[in-house]
Amino acid sequence: MNEQNKKVVIVGGGITGLSAAFYMQKEAREKGLPLDVILVEAANRLGGKIQTVRRDGFVIERGPDSFLIRKKSVGVLAEDLGIKGELVKNATGQAYVLVNDELHPIPGGSIMGIPTEVGPFLKTRLFTMAGKIRAAGDFILPRSGIEGDQSLGKFFRRRFGSEIVENLIEPLLSGVYAGDIDHMSLESTFPQFYEVEKKHRSLILGMKKTTPKQLPQKNSHGAKKEGVFHSFRNGLETLVEAIEQQLEPGSVMKGIRIEGIEEPKTSEDKTVLQLNDGQKIEVDAVILTTGHEVASRLFAPYDLLQGLKEIRTTSVATIALAFPEESVVQDKEGTGFLVSRSSDYSITACTWTHRKWPTTTPDGKILLRAFVGRAGDEAIVDLSDREIEKIVLADLSKIIEIKGKPDFTIITRWKEDRPQYRVGHKKRIEAARAELKVKFPQIKLAGASYDGVGLPDCIDQGRVAVKEVLEELF
Hints:
Elements (H helix, E strand, L loop, with lengths): L5 E6 L3 H17 L3 E7 L10 E4 L2 E4 L5 E2 L4 H9 L5 E3 L5 E5 L2 E4 L4 E2 L2 E2 L2 H6 L5 H7 L16 H9 L1 H16 L8 H4 L1 H10 L2 H8 L18 E4 L4 H10 L5 E3 L3 E5 L8 E5 L4 E4 L1 E4 L3 H7 L14 E12 L3 E2 L6 E4 L7 E6 H4 L8 E8 L12 H13 L3 E2 L5 E12 L5 H15 L3 E3 L9 H19 L1
Parallel strand pairs: 1-2, 1-16, 2-12, 7-19, 16-24
Antiparallel strand pairs: 3-4, 5-11, 6-11, 7-8, 9-10, 13-14, 14-15, 17-21, 17-23, 18-22, 19-20, 20-21
Helix pairs in contact: 1-10, 1-15, 5-6, 8-9
């Protein structure tokens, strides 16, 4: 590497760090910038939570399985990588909520649990008549008048009552963060609902006015065919593999951990990173994409970023179960179900993956993917594989008929891994970045702990950090 070039180190090889490295090298090539970019990853593989298992013709995700098409950044990245042709859309189908041992179809016209069509809402048996009458209060209730952040639970219970929240809104919203809706920050997770109430007062009327009407996409037989999510034909790890192949040779350091950061003595000095192999690297800028716990540990000697310790994490596990087609009898059409928090089940959701993502499953086979663990109920994640499999099969057998054992199961634990965006999250992140700006202005924070946990959110954060660094260096 050229000693005269500016040197940027990106710490963390998850999707945030990978996208930052890719776009920074792309900018340097296209604009002829004198820049060396190094990506440092503590593990021996890249991709973070994106992990795809390809086995016996199955494509099985251990972590995220898709992303919303309307959030453009993953599609743009795929195009920039030349793999846009590998994108596939999910097959549409009825989704359900499990309440009182019965699968109830999510009412038509529901937008993240908010009803925008009266007919399906009145007909559903997901709620009692009393619950429906209480939810109708949204039409007449005034705006909350609350300034600043509040919990999702508080916000939605006020507008719709507890029954709608417990049986529909909570399963839909909390699943993204594996969090407790009564502690999750409205401002940092779904601020659009606050804006709708502020502008339209009624959430029902506001969502109806602001949501574009979409004609269902149909195939030649008139059946619904495509959905609103994208993945890759051979799994999400396709994205990781494509980025790694296109990063500059020699710019990735795997199995290397940042042990410490030395504070620059003057504004002219460079930041020094201490590596676990004894090396020290002088750098002009750092994009730190690790989790908040690593960030707070690295800056503990300077008493910085200690407020990040207030960000809690939860543990979850996913269980993929592959069956011969004849071993599973499903009397309901659809792509999967969520589980109400009030239900007596260990699983929190189940995707009928062979239906939702047909390209993942060989002919004659069934692929189910169940989830366990949520905020305040995480002990199951610590059980053995055999125990988890037994519990999950027992739960599933109450809902669908399972005649035999699975061909195989793949269990993935994400221990203390899901950052919780609790009330006040945005201010905590702003405070952390303000602290860094004073003593370590060359270091940027980005990643799932900060400004969004979805793949598009993480890619966006990586790109914002790249823009900030380049503006400051050049």
